[in-house]
Amino acid sequence: MSKKATVKPGDQAPSLNLPDLQGHAHALDQALAKGPVLLAFFKAECPTCQYAFPFIDRLHRQFASQGASVWGISQDSERESREFAAEFGVSFPTLIDAKPYEVSNRYGVAYTPTLFLVGRDGKVELEGDGFSKQDLLEVQKKLARELSTKPDDLFLPGERVPEYKPG
Asked: In angstroms, what CA-CA distances link 114 with 24, 51, 150, 153, 157?
């Protein structure tokens, strides 16, 4: 994939319906009826994905009970995706976007990780690639405002977290 993300904030998020590791379908429109959805596109061998996903899982744990969804969208096999989820403590659904990466291409994903925060109205509220401390804090802020909640700190005292790691 050679093009930069074409889906930008303010755009309507392309529809998607992908299976998770247990074979259950996940449709974006159905999830949005319950609350906002954070889509996190990744590849298992991507070091930046490996670094970012434990923090993305913290977001999931902070907001899942309020109706927000976090989905990892893997560009790998089911086996590789399952191993990645186990190794990096991913507790949110991992969906498989198998070759030729129809959903990734629809979103214009060129790098991993790439994040899209989709609001209940189906519009993209945030898009970013690589590991961005500021993007994750912005996702947390938007979800907290949308869901009227006050989450714990995303980054813990003593954690040395870089501002950015490219994907």
From this structure: 23, 13, 25, 22, 26
Could you tell me where the DSSP H helices lie in 6-132? 28-32, 47-63, 78-87, 102-107
State which residues form the domain around 54: 17-148
Q: Inter-axis angle of helices 78-87 and 47-63, to 10 degrees?
A: 70
Q: Is residue 164 part of a domain?
A: no
pTM of the model: 0.96
Give 95-145 pLDDT, tens digit per residue: 999 999 999 999 999 999 999 999 999 999 999 999 999 999 999 999 999
CATH number of 60's domain: 3.40.30.10
Contact in structure between 59 and 154 (CB atoms under 8 Å): yes
- Is residue 43 in a domain? yes
Residue 165 is assigned to a structural domain of this protein: no
Q: Are strands 17-19 and 131-132 parallel, antiparallel or unpaired?
A: unpaired
38: confidence class by pLDDT, cuts 50, 70, 90? very high
Which amino acid makes up residue 72? G
